[in-house]
Amino acid sequence: MRKKKGLSEVVGFFIILIILLAVLIPLGIYLFSQPTVQAQQIQNAQAYKNLALEQYRDFQPIDFNSGGFSVAPVYFIYQDGSAYFVFVENQNPPEPLTITSIEVFNGTTWVTKSVNINVEIKYANTKLAGYPAIQIPLSKQPYKNQASYVAAVTQYGNIIYASPPYVLPMPSLKKSIGIPAVDPYNFTVLEQPQFEILKISQNGIPIQQFIHDVNGPNSNTMTFVWAYLLSKQSNGIFTFNGYWNGPIAYEYNSSSSLSLSSPPPPQFKGTLSGVFVGANMTLEGTFSGSLGSNSGYPIYFVSGNAESITFTYSFLLGSVSGESFSGEILLPGSILNNYFVNPDYLNITISGSGTIQVYNVSGSITINGSFNGYVNGIKEIKKSENGNQITITGNNITGIIEGTILSATLTPSYNTQGYLDGYINGILNKVKITANGVYDLLGYLIAAPIISAKLNNAEFNNVIANSVLPNVLAFPLPFNVTINEFSGILVLSNNHGSGTFNGLITFPPIGSLEIYQVGISDFSGKINGEFENDYRYLLGAWVPPVTLTVLPGTKNAVVEAAYSGLLSNYYWIVTPLVVRISVAIGNPSNETLVFTSAQITMKTDEIIQFLGSSGVQPFSATLYGSALDNFSKPIIVTPLNVSNFTLTLTIPVNSIFAPNLFPPSTSIQNQYQALESNSVDYIELYLTLLEPNGYGITITTIIPPYSIPVQGQAS
User: Fold this and answer.
1) Of 521 and 45, the one with more pLDDT
2) Which residues lie below 8 Å from residue 308, measured CB to CB, with a gap of 6+?
3) Mean pLDDT confidence for 382-388
4) Each residue of 364-380: b (16+ CB within 10 Å) or e?
């Protein structure tokens, strides 16, 4: 009996164990496979993050085809008081896109307005540059057309900043559909980007000869970390014809035979065409392009005429007239409240014919035409009869004026809450505008009319366009001025922009306590003309590196090292990357492809070791370069064909990141005056072949280190 009982206990135990395992194992698997609340939240957050990241694809470029021009599915654009979502692909964005708010920077603060905009092509209500678009007017509260920056916030919290309209591709242009291919092992590196320290003669050397002596005949490009550019002629004048990338800085040539106790300022006669930042100069001649400032520095039109000029949120003083005016002028009454000043000093006089709307203005308006609106809160409708003039006078005028404005002198209006912002908005012909501003006790401009408008055939007389301090705690406002074919005298102070100057340019003189002066903080473009009055132009060292590309015809320009003991008689230079590359281009279309130029950019990481009295000192550096190479003969690929081409490309270094090395310090110069070695890890190269219409196809490749010749010898 005991034996049977014992057996039954063992059997029973195993039966219970099997039951427990059968239940607990699946239960355990189930429990442990379920995420905790925290883990579930992390998963949800990651999914939300992934959606937010994917949403950026809506604004990232995609290809029309494997070799086509890149465009984004949706563009967010700001122009003339409205924001736009532009559908360049004529289809909805890849990821659902809902805008929950629009942010507008009005110069002082960001103003937010909640919205609910589904960015779908079916909601397009206009066209921009030929593409369907959703237009969002910013002329009403709370923005009041004062936008200098615009951003949209999406349902995932992404912030998308608006771009100018010129980034949109032109729908009428043919798109390149070529398919490029390149074998990275077919690169021939004729010259690698590397640092060199060269000792020179005291008299210097002609710039073209110097570059060819260093580079050989492969390129006319050189990046200078330290050198001077000046004339070898006794008259102190030198010519330059080529491309300049970097600051235009100078100091007076005190060793010259023309040395004077009070030297005249440096001058340039000729053409500067390109992009510039921080320009300090006076132009007597012509300019076409766009000017502006993020720091409120003024543009001063001493006198001149422009075929057309567009002001974008610019404070205006002086007198300007034109054949036609289209836009808006703001009289900022709120600023006057902050300063407790008399608004009579802030006024605008205007005349012309057309239709305008005035809002919250005070003053007197004499017209031949009609007025429909409110004066001091009372409804008024007036109309000229039998050729008689009518006059509207009050401290708060709001309404529509049609006809000829004979004269109007307006200031911000006033009510029980104080002075109010006033507006003038519309279209006028034969317009003349004279604007006065308000100054504080120290003579600083604190208020002026704000103009966002376009004038055709404009004439200027002592006009200042700039931004001012709306209150003592605010930063200056950004603004822009676009000029088409201006002729006259123009004064710039730390302004940026792009365009072409042609005429006489006078740079600021050297101050008594200054070692050097900067005419343009950063210039990228073409220069063709004469530098006068015997100044020494700095190429690097005190300023960032300067890259020069010399074209045939440059004479009397000499590269010279410093006279001071700081840098002794040595050049510090960086040679360009010169490559020979074989490219295959397939054309699957039925139209001939024509490429006339190539946009090239490159990045390289290097280790530089200097040899000196205390041994070898290594430095790491990252070099960036870019260039637009124009082909001497176009690349032509016929339909349904594949063609091979060999290109020799020069890419100068125009940006150097080398901590503790540049500009060269006194200790480095005293200790290291020779290079022990210059090793390149690899080079990233981006090549875009461009058609005349601006479209192109892009090749990306990496040049492996073993294809770079040792010590820069040509392969």
Assistant:
1) 521
2) 454, 455, 456, 457, 458, 483, 484, 485
3) 87
4) ebbbebbbebebeeeee
Instruction: Report helix, strand or coil for 672.
Output: strand
* pLDDT for 56 beyond 50: no
Total residues found in the chain within this entry: 715
Distance CA 348, CA 255 (A): 53
Q: Which of 346, 194, 84 is nearest to 708 (CA)?
A: 194
- pLDDT digits over 420-471, tens only? 888 899 999 999 999 988 877 777 777 888 888 899 999 999 988 877 554 4
Whether pLDDT at 259 is above 90:
no
Contact of 426 with 271, CB cutoff 8 Å: no
Could you tell me if 404 and 353 are in contact, meaning their C-beta atoms sit under 8 angstroms apart?
A: yes
pLDDT band at 666 (very low <50, low <70, confident <90, very high): very low
Give dist(CA 467, CA 464) in Å, integer: 10
CB 178 within 8 A of CB 637: yes
Q: Is the pLDDT of residue 495 over 70?
A: yes
Quote the CA–CA distance of 681 and 194 in Å, as a whole number.
12
29-57 b/e (C-beta count within 10 Å ≥ 16 → b): eeeeeeeeeeeeeeeeeeeeeeeeeebee
Q: Are 486 and 306 in contact (CB under 8 A)?
A: yes
DSSP strands (E only) in 533-560: 535-538, 546-550, 557-560
* Contact in structure between 289 and 490 (CB atoms under 8 Å): no
Helix (H, G, I), strand (E, B), or coil: what is residue 209? helix
Round the CA-based radius of gyration of the chain to a whole number and report it.
34
pLDDT at residue 13 greater than cutoff 90:
no
Position 369 pLDDT exceeds 80: yes
Nearest to 613 by CA among 660, 541, 659, 668: 668
pLDDT at 474: 43
Q: Of 170-184, 214-228, 233-247, where does the model show the most confidence?
A: 233-247
Distance of CA 501 to the CA centre of its chain: 19
Of 81, 111, 113, 88, the residue nearest 99 (C-alpha): 113
Examine the pLDDT at 633 and tell me if it is beyond 80. yes
Does residue 705 contact residue 192 with C-beta atoms inside 8 Å? no
Do the beta carbons of residue 569 and residue 200 sit within 8 Å? yes
Q: What backbone phi and psi angles, to 5 degrees, belong to 214?
A: -85, -50
CA angle 139, 143, 149 (to 5 degrees): 100
DSSP 443: S
Express as a percent the part of the chain with pLDDT over 90. Answer: 21
